[in-house]
DNA sequence: CTGTTAGCGCATTCAC
DNA sequence: GTGAATGCGCTAACAG
């Protein structure tokens, strides 16, 4: 059975004063005689008094709680985002209420309403992959609850964002492949419907353009394609692919597998760059070049942004783009530099 | 600015009844004339009324909230535990308040008090690596807040546990290595002070004993040893090691690296089994044999246990041991079966 | 300086 | 059936 906690009234009774006096003494605000204040404080400490935030919330209409909706927990990227968020919110004295959408919009909607019901002071969310309903987002905005969207962008939702600069990230990767002399660069796209997929593809195209290289349709594959493996094989055998840039590190590993089967040497014959900098990238052989998105910093930044928004609703509504870092490892061929 | 939500009183005023009546109509409990009940319900829906859980909490002394303390978020294992917990709590209508200790006991203590202050209905926690203070745990118990400890066990704390059967998990791995004919089996231990480290080591010893193999001190290394890499090298070159069982998958990858340097073939000359079944295990080459701890199930089980405890404080205090699964992959040599 | 009053939103007595 | 009263724990406005 949950034991009754000692309340302000308990210590008021014990000291023959009113709860108001106790409240004032404890909060320092009002004027209380030095003698009583000390008495009260010492008794409070002795009794292990801890204020009830529930009561305060009811009164103040603030809960000191941030709601968080993530598409999944298991992905390394999101756990880093979570860690970044927590590092900021805990320091700021906020609790973190956590939900997942499991990449399912219905669950996202449910989670959103749950958080709204819980009267969180603000919401951080990454929208799920399939998103065609926006009423729940509208409801958040209507309720006046500050909202910051993380990682994934949607044209339909006008709110603060903290996202990764996928365009530049992809551009830097493909630009690098071009620089080291790759002539036929394969790209495997991510899930449809995701801003990240689109932007990384755009970065790929732009880098090709910069180097005056044609965009070859047969070198652009879809990760959702059931025949993906076959098509990669075709690219590797028929189309003289000597470079690859994939939407994720795991897709890069698919290329590793096929290259190994086909006895194609990485990086000598094929340079590969993935995306996300999964920890596995440095353990696999050859170590994988990839694009680091600074997920921890992304989480921290979005939390800071949200807290600002909570404390000052006039804070500008902007899309913050986080720089990516190109991590070149063993999977890219080394070009002799003429010195 | 957070907009004022519509309350039970608002709809009472609109309908010329008292809040009591509205409350009864909405909760179904008391007797309300059918006409009024319908009126009230329809207006409530129209106005988008949602009960304020804060007010209910204050009244009921229950928050429908579970507190969770994890040593870290980033580790794959803990994110699976988290996912398992969430899958249960969300279905049961509980919120999840999340904290991390960062493997630091002071932060663990702080988080514990935060959760207690927040009046969570129960706490799930994995104690941090270094643990020598137990007052905060005692405080949880004194407060009457149900507590279930996950993954790591401590003799000092008497409370429900859900842990993995590390002994059997380790035993099954080393037993397998013996069965396929390994004669000199290296073990790399985990961090001191952890029940998991101890139990896996015990499992290692017991398997050796079963096969009448001597425990060789020089084949047991400490992961915290600054000279670990050198010592592994020594084992591999001098001590005819032909099998290895490590506290974690990542330690197994250290062996992979050294074996590659020393031109020792895995699994032909050296069979390796890790622990935890990190996703990376199936991507690395050769794919790593390992022990799966069912972290999702562990999370789910601990959440179920806690909910039971919350609903019935008389629930037995026990240590639930979760079965492990030995995952044999390419890193173990194949023995011809005589058929 | 300190006590009284009131109210945050709700559910639960107890009268009528 | 329904309203009035009470209180969960706390703070704030107002008296004194």
UniProtKB/TrEMBL annotation, chains A, B:
- Membrane-spanning residues where? none
SUPFAM superfamilies found in the cross-reference section? lambda repressor-like DNA-binding domains (SSF47413), Periplasmic binding protein-like I (SSF53822)
The record's listing under PROSITE patterns reads: HTH_LACI_2 (PS50932)
Question: A single Gene Ontology molecular function, please?
Answer: DNA-binding transcription factor activity
Domain (HTH lacI-type): residue spans on this chain: 6-60
User: Is DNA-binding one of the keywords UniProt gives this record?
Assistant: yes
Which keywords label this protein? DNA-binding, Transcription, Transcription regulation
Q: Which CDD domains match?
A: HTH_LacI (cd01392), PBP1_LacI_sugar_binding-like (cd06267)
Q: Does the keyword Oxidoreductase apply?
A: no
Q: Give the protein's recorded name.
A: LacI family transcriptional regulator
Q: Which organism is it from?
A: Algoriphagus yeomjeoni
